[in-house]
Amino acid sequence: MEKKRCVLGLDFGTTKVACVLVDLEEGSLLDSASVDTNAYTRCKNPLYYEQDTGRVQGALTEVISRCMKRFEGEIFSIGITGQMHGVVGLDERGNPVTNLVTWQDERGNEPGKNGRTLLEEMEQRGGKRAIATGYGIVTLYDWIVRKRLRDISKVCTIPDYFGMRMTGQKQPVIDDTMADSTGAFDPWERAWDHGYISDLGLDAGVLPDVVPPSTVLGQVRDEDIRTLLTGSRPPVSVSIGDNQASYIGSVRDYADTILVNIGTASQVSYLADGSPSTDGGPSVDGYDVVVRPFVDGRRLVSGNSLSGGCSYARLRGFFEETGRELFGVTDFSGLWERMEALASEQEDSGGLELNPLYWGKRSDPAARGFIQGLNYKNFTPSNLIYTTLEGIVNILMEMVDGRTIEEKRSLVGSGNALRKNKTLRKVTQHIFRKKLLVPLYEEEAAIGAAINSAVACGLVKSFSDAGSMIRYI
């Protein structure tokens, strides 16, 4: 059997590590696997969301092992992506001295001794800035200024930490897409915002050196990873943000497509047009809708919602509580399927409207959802399910200006919540008034990381050429 020429893509997600093998000759997905990290640690403070990097390491080893067991061929490069915003603290040899603080962390809302929240304190020092709790710069401020930790030499994102480990380096580096997610990066200058960092009382030297997207870090030197790769030492490219990677792994035509990604949270993204001052049009507010660095010197407009599959899961939780507390039911197997069946019977929500801002917005953490339009006919479980799905998509649609929706001809949908729920796909198509295309292969972010690496290493000529690999159901 002829051996395959492949690129391996890794996605360090919030709850799992995913691995894909992409065939460069045929532009197809040969194999994929994912492993739950089970990495969350118990924190005394309920506002803290932290993960054990050792457990993430275990999931990484396991997921590569699963893919490589069934593979006969050669890995020509490795691409990395993963959760943005969060950071881990390292010593001078690149060893972790803290847990990973994830993007979900809420310590920015914690009041200090002066009564101000951490975010309010940072705003007083550094001025108003489009950051939110869970951003790396907020965590770093808490560690260095509030807690006076002195054993942190560097901080980096979790994908960049593993890029460093795999290539045997002691100091992490970071690309524009990941650096921007920390909240302390100037995307127009493509450099750390030294003035802002200094105003906060921090030393920019604790942050990694910045390299352009699609930069090659070096070859695999980690012996455990080399063993899994049957002794080969392919080059590894610097990690790319999961938002950007999902776009690359889902979209065939960058210039003409809106991507809706609905997983635990949700995003809507499209390629920006024009100069930095006009990128993305009137919808860009710098908080919920931002302009992010992309590959090839381009920029991506990204609307980010804390609502998504988590909001639908909360509705399921409500139904479970109703069953337990009113009827003594304890077995809820099949509930997802029943919810989907009820929603699929609906053509609309009967005038019911629900906004699922259960966790607020980045621009307004105190914002909350609402339900309105209730009457004696429409207050039913099926309408409640349907209008929840509508609410998830409406939040995203409102983040895109009307001109962009009109001009972009293609609508692509990705993310597990959208893939698994047929009615959510129907609702998305109806609200955006476009036919929805769904990529043939799952793990879009890992596929995007693999493509990014293939371009970085010269295995594929350009991102335009790589777009031909994307196929839709």
Features:
Nucleotidyltransferase, domain 5; 16 helices; 473 residues; six-stranded mixed sheet; single chain; 2 domains; five-stranded mixed sheet; alpha/beta
Explain what the structure shows.
The chain has 473 residues and is α/β, with parallel strands linked by helices. The chain folds into two domains: 4-238 and 444-469, ATPase, nucleotide binding domain (Nucleotidyltransferase, domain 5, 2-Layer Sandwich), CATH 3.30.420; 253-439, Nucleotidyltransferase, domain 5. It is 33% helix and 22% strand. The chain has helices spanning 53-69, 118-126, 136-146, 158-166, 176-180, 194-199, 223-228, 242-250, 309-327, 335-344, 381-397, 402-407, 416-420, 422-432, 444-456, 463-466, and strands spanning 4-12, 16-23, 28-36, 50-51, 73-82, 88-90, 100-101, 154-156, 173-175, 185-186, 191-192, 209-211, 216-219, 235-237, 240-241, 257-262, 266-271, 289-293, 299-305, 353-355, 370-372, 410-414, 436-437. The strands form eight sheets. A six-stranded mixed β-sheet has the order 18-19-17-16-22-23, with helices on both faces. Strands 3-2-1-5-15 form a five-stranded mixed β-sheet, with helices on both faces. The chain has a two-stranded antiparallel ribbon with strand order 4-7. Helix 9 packs antiparallel against helix 11. The chain is globular.
Quick structural gist:
By secondary structure, the protein is α/β, with parallel strands linked by helices. It has helices at residues 53-69, 118-126, 136-146, 158-166, 176-180, 194-199, 223-228, 242-250, 309-327, 335-344, 381-397, 402-407, 416-420, 422-432, 444-456, 463-466; strands at 4-12, 16-23, 28-36, 50-51, 73-82, 88-90, 100-101, 154-156, 173-175, 185-186, 191-192, 209-211, 216-219, 235-237, 240-241, 257-262, 266-271, 289-293, 299-305, 353-355, 370-372, 410-414, 436-437.
